[in-house]
């Protein structure tokens, strides 16, 4: 199942953060330039006991505007526990994907 979060508001930011906390082994894609998404592990590596993920996504407990006055859902986030579902969603909608260079380590390959 794919969940989509987009909006520069507290409600959407908090819903995305709740999804991340509930889906620690999931993935999210962040929309970058038009038609392009970057795939990340859902959890920040500092809060995932396995140590996977990256540092630049911020913690899933960060509230709206708490991290550098930012909102994590200003750019569209597309989330799923299935990497195959995410890439299929992107392909079916004509988008390109790439894996995050910080998340995609030899220890935790996508």
Please tell me about this protein's structure.
The chain is α+β, with helices and mostly antiparallel strands and 110 residues long. Helix content is 21%, strand content 20%. Strands 1-4-2-3-5 form a 5-stranded mixed beta sheet, with helices on both faces. It is globular, with a radius of gyration of 13 Å. The chain starts with a strand and ends in an 11-residue tail after the last strand. The mean pLDDT is 91.
Helix percentage: 10-25%
The radius of gyration is 13 Å
Strand line-up across the major sheet: 1-4-2-3-5
The helix tally amounts to 2
Nutshell version of this structure?
With 110 residues, the protein is of the alpha+beta class.
Q: What topology does this entry show?
A:
Elements: E1 3-5, H1 10-22, E2 27-31, E3 36-41, E4 77-80, H2 83-92, E5 96-99
What are the salient characteristics of this protein?
single chain; 110 residues; alpha+beta; 5-stranded mixed sheet; 2 helices
